[in-house]
User: Fold this.
Amino acid sequence: MHRKIILLFIILIASAAARAQSDTLSITLENVKYPYPVSFLPIRVEGQDIRMAYMDVKPATANGKTVMLFHGKNFGGYYWTNVIQALTAKGYRVIVPDQVGFGKSSKAFIHYSFHQLARFNKKLLDTLGVQKVTLLGHSMGGMLATRFTLMYPDQVEKLLLEDPIGLEDYRTFVPYQSAEDDYKTELKTSFGSVKQYYQNSYFTTWKPAYDYLVKIAAGVSNSSDFPRYAKVAALTFEMIYEQPVCYEFGLIKVPAVLFIGKEDKTIVGKALLSNEEKAKHGQYKILGPETAKKIPGCKLIEFENCGHIPHIEISEKFLKALIENI
Assistant:
C-alpha cells in the first residue's frame, strides 16, 4: 500500500511538471495575450461562417503607408511584436492577420489554398479601406505573400520575404503523404516534440527567450479540441506541399527584397527524408541567391549565423535592414 502511494505521488508530480511545461491553450488561443487589440473579420466560405483575427496597429505619427505581416505555419501574430513596434515607430500602419486556420482565427474544415487565403486578406484590406500595402511574409507567409502579389500586383507597393519556404518544389523530392497521414503525425504533438523541432530547425543556438513559442505551439495539444487543430494543420501542410510558388517568381512585377538567414535549412517534410536527401535540399545559403536571381530586380540581404527566424534570432540586425529597405 505504501509503495502504491509513493507511485501515485510520483505520477502526480510528473503530471504537474508536464503541465508546467505547457499550459492548456484553446485552439483559437483565447488565453494567449497578443501585443495589441485583436479584431475579427467575418467570412462566409463553403457554407460556413468563420472569422479571421487581425491586429490593426496605427502609429502615433502616420507616414501614410501600411505594412501587412504574414506569419509562418507554426505561428500567429503574437511573434511579430518587435517588428510592429519598429514599423509603427517609423510612422507605418501595421496590419497583422492570423490566417484562417491559424492563431486566433477559425480552425475551419475547408479547402485550404494560397489563392483563397489571399482573397481573405484582400477582403480584410478592402474592409479597412487600405488601397496599397507593403507585404512582409515569413516562412509560409512568404509563399502567401508571393501568391497575393501575383494576384493583386496593383495593391502591393513592395514585397519583402523573410526566409520564405517554397523556394524549391517539395513534391520533387519529399515523399507524398496524404492529409490523413499528416493528421496522424500531428496528433503526436507534445511539448517535447515541438521544442526539439524548434531547436533543430529554427535557431542556430537555443535561448530560454524562445520557450514562449514552444509553449504556445504545444499548449494547444492539451486541448480537448486538439484533433480539429491537428486536422487543419494537416490540411495546411498539404496546401504547402501541393501548391508551389517557386515557378512563378519571375512573374513578380513589384520591387522585392529577400531576407535570408544563411544557416536556415528548412525543408517541409524533412522528417520523411534520408540524411543524404536532407543534405541536398533546404540550403538557404544556396537557395537565397538562386531565388533572388529569379525575381526581377530583387535585392538579397543575407545574415550570417542566423537560422529560419531572423526577426527573432538577430532582432536588431534584421530590424535595421528592414527599416533601411522597406
About this structure: The domain at 24-325 is CATH 3.40.50.1820 (Rossmann fold). The radius of gyration is 20 Å. Confidence is low (pLDDT under 50) at residues 1-20. The chain has twelve helices and eight strands.
